[in-house]
Design goal:
The complex is a heterodimer of chains A (about 140) and B (about 375). Chain A is α/β, with parallel strands linked by helices and about 140 residues long. Chain A is about 40% helix and about 15% strand. By secondary structure, chain B is of the alpha/beta class. The radius of gyration of chain B is 22 Å and the shape is globular. The chains are: A alpha/beta (about 140), B alpha/beta (about 375). Bound molecules: iron/sulfur cluster (2 copies) and FE2/S2 (inorganic) cluster.
Amino acid sequence: MEEFEPTIVAFVCNWCTYTAADLAGTSRLTYPKNVRLIRVMCTGMVDPQYVIKAFLEGADGVLISGCHPGDCHYINGNFKARRRIKLLKEILPQFGFDQERLRLTWIGASDGIQFAEIMQELVTQIKALGPSQAKLKMVI
Amino acid sequence: MAITAKIDVEEKDILESLRGFFRDILNVEEIKAVLVPQHLPMKNMVMPTLVTDLNQLDGVDPLAPAFPMNAAKIVSRLTRKPMGGKIAAALRPCEIRAFFELVKLKQGSTDELVLIGIDCLGAYQNNDYSRFVEQNGDQSTIKFYQNILSGKNGEIDGLNLAPACKACEYPVASNADILIGLYGIEVDSQILIQSQTNVGEDLLAQLNLSEINEPGIRQDTVADVIEKRVAYRDEMFGSTREVTDSLEKMTAYLASCVNCYNCRVACPVCYCKECVFVTDVFNHDPSRYLRWANRKGIIKMPTDTVFYHITRLAHMSTACVGCGQCSNACPNDIPVMELFRTVSQRTQEAFEYEAGRSLEEDPPLSVFREEEFPEVVGIN
Ligand code: SF4
Ligand code: SF4
Ligand code: FES
C-alpha cells in the first residue's frame, strides 16, 4: 500500500511564521511538501470558518501559527486566535475530528530552523493519525 | 430592599389580573409603552405588541403556549438607539437571556427599559399551537396553565411541550427588573410580584401593591420543575451526541436541510448584520461546482450544509440560550435546537460562561487573557 501522505493547511501570519518559512527557504532548509501555507496578515484574522472549511474539504490537519505572545504586530491578534482555537477544539471533536488535527504554534520571524523542524514533526504526527474522515466520506 | 408583593386574582382569572397589572404599569408617568404578548384579532396567534393605549391591553396573554419568535430581537430593535421614553417589556426568561447577549454585543440597551420576567410555563411548537387553539378556542390558555401549574407536563390532546421547553432549566427569570411569579403560588387568589433590581423596585414602589412574604413552597416547586427539565436535558444531550458524533452521522442528521437559513433568521443571538452564507462569498462561480463534483464524482446540492451549521456553532454557540426557535423555524423538522444546545453546553463550559446570565460577563470570544489555555499551544 502506498504510504499515506497527509494534507496540512497552515495559516501563517505575515510577520512571524511566514517570515520564518521564508528564512527556512533562503537557508535551504527543507520541510515536507504536505504543508500548504496560506499567508494571512495576522493569526487574529483567521475566522473559525476557514478552519472548518479546510477540514470539511479533507485537510488531515490544520495549523495556525503566528508571533509569540507579546510580539503580534496587531498587539493581541494571537491571543484572540488562541481563544478561537480553544473554541474549535471543543466543537470539532464533537463531530469526530481528533482535536490533535488542529494545532496552534508561535514561530518567530528568525526561527527558520525551528519552522522546518516543527513542520517535520507535525507531518509525522498527523501521518500517525491517518486520513481524516472528511477525505473518505461524502460531506453534504 | 427588594419588594415582594402580590396582585389579587378574581374569579380565578389570572390573565385578567395580569392585564390589570400591565395597565397599572402603563399608567405610571415615566412608562411610555409596554411590550406584551397579545392575541391578535386575526387567527388567535399571540405576538409581541407595543402598546401605548390603556384600552388596547384586552388581548394580553403572556401564558399562552405560543412562542412564535424570541422577542429579544424586538427589544433589540426598540433599544438600539434612544427611543425617547421608557418601556416595560414582558418577556420569557430565555428572551431576557438572549437580549442580554445582544446588549453585550451593543445591539440593544437597558437604559430605557424595565424588564418584566414572567415565570415561563413553556410552549408548544408553532404548528402544535395552531392545532391546540383550533381545538380549545377561548379556553386554550386557561386549560394550559392549569395543567402546568398543577404540576403536570403540559401534555394535552396528544400535544407536547416543545423539546426546547422540556429541556429548559431556566423557567424563572433571575435577572429581570420585575418578576411575575406563578410556580408555587396559590394562583387562584394571587400572583407574586417581586423586584430583582433597583429599577424594578422604583417602579413597583409607585404601584402601591400589598406586600407579602414569598410562600415557602415556591422555591421547592421551582426546584422540582428544574430537576425534571435537567433530567430531560441530559438525556437529550446523550441521545443527540450519539447521532451526531461523526461527520457521517452529521450528514444523516442534516440530510433534509435545504440551506434556507431560516434557523439563523429565527435565532435571537445570531448577531451578524449580514450572514456570510448569504453573501457573494457563497455565490460560487458555476464552473467551481463542476470542479468540486469532479473530485469525488458527486456533490450534494446545495453545497456547504454541514459547513454552515458548524460555522454557525463556532460563531454563536457560546451565546445560545436554548430557546428552540431554530427548530421552530425549520421547514423540514430538523432538530436544530438539540444539536446547538448539545454543542453549546461544551463551548460555554469551556469558557466558564453561561449565555444570558449576567451583563457583567463579557462574551468569551470578545475578550482574552494573556495567560490562558496553554494546552492548546504547541505541537507536543
Ligand atoms: S441556536 Fe436555536 S436554541 Fe440556540 S439561541 Fe439560537 S434559536 Fe435559540
Ligand atoms: S431551517 Fe432547517 S432546512 Fe433551513 S437551514 Fe436551518 S436546518 Fe436547514
Ligand atoms: S501579526 Fe503575527 S500573530 Fe498577529
